[in-house]
Amino acid sequence: MKCESCMGEVRGGRAKCPFCGFPVVQIPEMEEEEREHVRSMGREYLRRKLEDLTVGITAYSYAMEEEGLTLEETAEVQVAGGSDLKPGVPVWLRRDFQRLDQEGEVVIHAFLRRGDHEKRMELPVQLPKISGPCRIGVCLEEGLRARFLLGDADSCTKSAQFSLMD
Q1: 146 class by beta-carbon count within 10 Å (0-12 exposed, 13-18 middle, 19+ buried)
Q2: For the segment 38-94, what is each residue's pLDDT rounded down to a tens digit?
Q3: Phi-psi domain of 115 (left: phi exceeds 0; alpha: psi -120 through 50; beta: other)
Q4: Is pTM, for the whole model, over 0.70?
Q5: Of 89, 159, 101, nearest to 134 (Cα)?
């Protein structure tokens, strides 16, 4: 059975979702109006669970020097706030990133921030098969897990999944 909040798979007669903690409602013959009410409560629960979350990356800019490229600046960039995240709907940062390579793998230096707690991750991802600059996005998946996206809305590659609750 799927959790009505985070869409994670709930097994074994649990009283709460193991991912988000939303109560499991097991009424076999629930009317559609009642089911929609439970879904609405699940969406609101998820919104509140994620509202103070920030998902971001560290962006690097380089300058061309006589000896080649040198790191010029690093900056933390918010890709999405928790309230922006909806299951299965990508959120794209409205900023282009120039590509140094046309193929291969890059590492996204990512962070999750909630209040004083911060988690940092290094997520390898294949460069997409597009020409020109890339965009970075994030997509919420089942069980309060997400992936970073690299490319554009038409063609992108995905990082490994990571939990939004660790």
Answers
A1: buried
A2: 889 998 998 888 999 999 999 888 888 888 878 888 999 999 999 899 889 999 999
A3: left
A4: yes
A5: 101
